[in-house]
Amino acid sequence: MLFQNKYDRARKWQIEEKEKREAMNGQKDMKDEVEIADLLEKGDMYALISSAMFTIMPVAILVLLIIVLAGMLFMRIL
After folding, report:
1. Of 63, 60, 40, nearest to 52 (Cα)?
2. Dist. CA 78–CA 65, nearest whole Å
3. Residue 30 contacts residue 22 (beta carbons within 8 Å)
4. Domain of 21?
5. Are 39 and 74 contained in the same domain?
6. What does the alpha-carbon distance between residue 78 and residue 41 come to, in Å, rounded to a whole number?
7. Domain check: are 44 and 15 in the same one?
8. Residues 6, 60: Cα–Cα separation, whole Å
9. Model confidence over 20-66: pLDDT tens digits?
């Protein structure tokens, strides 16, 4: 590998930091993953869904209209 020494040092540092955190917590089997529900507040899911709809739906409708118009022009219905 091109930067093998740097990679090894970084990996060694990560392992040492993880061991320090585990020693401070006193629990080695503690779950490291963060759940999405832990990060969201009460109205966040509604805000995420509505913002996605306002962002994605106009683009999707525009693309569908272009496809329909191209099909109509191809079939000479217009």
Report:
1. 60
2. 14
3. yes
4. 1-32
5. yes
6. 50
7. no
8. 46
9. 888 877 655 555 666 776 777 888 888 889 999 999 999 999 999 99
Q: Is the pTM of this model over 0.85?
A: no
Residue 1, Cα to own-chain centre: how many angstroms?
Answer: 30
Residue 75: count of CB within 10 angstroms of its CB: 8
- Helical ranges in 1-78 per DSSP H: 4-25, 36-39, 44-75
In angstroms, rounded to a whole number, what is the distance separating the alpha carbons of residues 69 and 65?
A: 6
**56 contacts 62 by C-beta, under 8 angstroms:** no
Helix or strand (DSSP H, E) at 29: none
For tokens 């507040």, the residue is 41
